[in-house]
Each structure stands twice: as structure tokens, then as C-alpha cells.
Amino acid sequence: MKLSLIQMNSGREKEANVERACRLIDRAAKGKPDLIVLPEFFNTVYFGQYRDYRYVAWAEPDDGYTMTRVRDKAVQHGVHIIATIYEEESPGVYYDTAMVVDPRGDIVGKYRKTHPAAFRSLEKIYFRYGSKYPVFPIHDWRVGIVICYDLFFPESARCLLVNGAELIIVPFCEPVGFLTEVSTNIPAIAGGKVDKAAWLDSWQVRMRMRAIENVTYLAACNHSGKEDQVVYAGGSCIVDPKGNIITEAGEDEKIITATLDRGLFVNARRNTPLLRDRRPDLYWPICTETDDIVD
What we know:
Layout: E1 2-7, H1 14-29, E2 35-40, H2 65-77, E3 80-90, E4 93-101, E5 107-112, E6 135-138, E7 141-145, H3 154-162, E8 167-171, E9 177-178, H4 196-214, E10 217-221, E11 224-227, E12 230-233, E13 237-239, E14 245-248, E15 254-259, H5 262-271, H6 274-277
Parallel strand pairs: 1-2, 2-3, 7-8, 8-10
Antiparallel strand pairs: 1-15, 3-4, 4-5, 6-7, 9-12, 10-13, 11-12, 13-14
Helix pairs in contact: 1-2
């Protein structure tokens, strides 16, 4: 399978962001990928930087403006697209949702973020958490999705492995930092200086480890540049099941593409038989209910 990631910058105008994403989809489609991935919240600036419940008005249903345009592009180019938006399921019920669109323009699956962030952000006031780790067939690959902060929890990626994932897609809206103090719990970057090198090193370690420990391909797709008071350093990359970075985007807006090697994947699974050796009967402490955890 040929996979393309679109690393992009977004502004405050939804329509402009969507049109920009569509132009980038057009560019990516020239390389004839089977799957195109957009970043988390590609159609907005990151509203989680603010404590202002009025931003719930930015949520859209899956048949709203954004996904209608994305679905049209999937049909136009005959390609699968994974697009992550702030979804309105019903009035007062909102999710951070990655939608899987097939080449006919149908939404054939959804993954809803299971860990809304309260670490350097305020996502928990805007949407509820999902509770499932579905895996979707895309061509001859089984594809799982987690979103941004989810990847800090290795259990999330492991659930995808157990459910059959061979490729893990991770749409991100992960910043290096914030230029000003935009809420009571998001401090500004000290002196306004961003240590992008340190951030990128930590980021790549996380991507590589999740690929290695689950013997999967992993594709991380992030924002780039400055959006309001948020600074992004890109870092989008595709990692193979051995933890090797196949391709990476750097800091700027860019499309990266790689072809997944089925033979490499099969050999990695044979040589690292995690599914044979894991002992779920011993892992009950991980699932201990919160009130019963011993500090």
C-alpha cells in the first residue's frame, strides 16, 4: 500500500483551511497513493489552547461542510482518506473523531479519541472520550487509528495490535509549546524560545517505540508552523515495524509518501512473535479500577 501524509498549517477560517487541505490532497493524489492522511483538527486552529466554551460551535456533523469536501476528494481521486475533525454527534455530544472515507466517498469507519488531553491543553471541556479501538481493512492492510495524546498511553496502541492492526495511523495536533499564557494551566514557553531539536528527538523516540513494541508500521501526521499562540515543529513521519524512520517531513508544510513492504512486515512479525509470547492473564493490574489502585 502506498501511503501519503499531509503536514499542514491551519488558520482561523474553516473554509480556507478545508480548501487548503483539498489542494494538498490534489497534490498528494498525483503520486497515486492508496491512502491519504490529514492531521488532527486540520480544518481549525487548535481551540484546546483556550478556555472558552463558545468553541463548541466549531463542531460539525459527519455530513457537514468539511467532510462533504473531503468525501468529494476521495471520489475524485479514487483514494481512501483519513480526516480528523471536531465532530458533533448530536447537540451537546462532541468527539475528536478520525473518519475513514473510502474511494466511493462513504465514511466506512470512525475512531474517537479515547484520551482527551488535559496536559498542556483543555480538550476535556470540549468533547467526551471514545471507548473503542476498531481496525479497518484498507486494501490488503488492517489499519488502526489513535489520535495525538492517545499515543502517550502504550495500552492504546497495544489494543490495536490485539485487534489485528498492521498499520497504526496517528493524526496529531501536537505543539512544541505556546508563545503566551493562554489559559490557567498552559504556561508560555520560557522566554519565547522553542527547543525544536529536543522536542523532535522525544517525538521520534515515541513514534519508533510504538512501532517496535507492536511490530507495526506507524504513520504520524502533524501540523506545522505557528497557529495563533501555538508553535508546531511538524515531525510527520512513517516508521517501519523495526523502528526505522522511512521518511519524515521536517518542520515545514509538506507531503510525504512511502510504500509499505508486506514482506518486511511479515518477517518482522515472524522474528518478533509478540502475539505468541504476551501473557494477558498477568496484566490485570493495568485494568484495575481507579478507586482500587494502590498508590
